[in-house]
Amino acid sequence: MVDKAKLTPEEYLATILVPEKGRETGHVCWDCKHLKPVLKGSKFPPADLIGWCTMIHWPFYWCITDFNVVKKCFAMEKGIYTPKKF
């Protein structure tokens, strides 16, 4: 079990805000801190979105679709969805 008292605020949010889609989509965005994923059970966004990039095209956010796989990005920065155990 994870000791939530030792987590940073970003790590804690990553444990309770579960994304609808996961790393199996192949996007480099999952390693980036600017990704704001579509949350599990959300009915608002179109079904083909994995999330939004809050860095590109700010303040209007760039939509990241499931079928256009992002392999390289100029705004890439390590973030909280990196594959590690909390």
Attribute tags:
86 residues; 3-stranded antiparallel sheet; 3 strands; single chain; 9% helix
Question: If you had to describe this structure to a student in words, what would you say it looks like?
Answer:
Helices cover 9% and strands 14% of the residues. It is mainly beta. It is globular and about 35 Å long.
Summarize the structure.
The protein has 86 residues and is mainly beta. Helix content is 9%, strand content 14%.
Low-confidence stretches: none
Main beta-sheet strand count, sense and barrel state:
3 strands, antiparallel
Work out the radius of gyration. Answer: 13 Å
Shape: globular
Strand content: 5-15%
| Average pLDDT figure | 80
Instruction: Please give the count of helices.
Output: 1
Output the strand order for the largest sheet: 1-2-3
What share of the residues lie within helices?
under 10%
Query: Which class best fits the helix and strand makeup?
Result: mainly beta
Order of helices and strands: HEEE
Distance between the termini: 9 Å
Number of strands: 3
Write the layout of secondary structure elements.
Blueprint: H1 9-16, E1 35-37, E2 49-53, E3 62-65
Antiparallel strand pairs: 1-2, 2-3
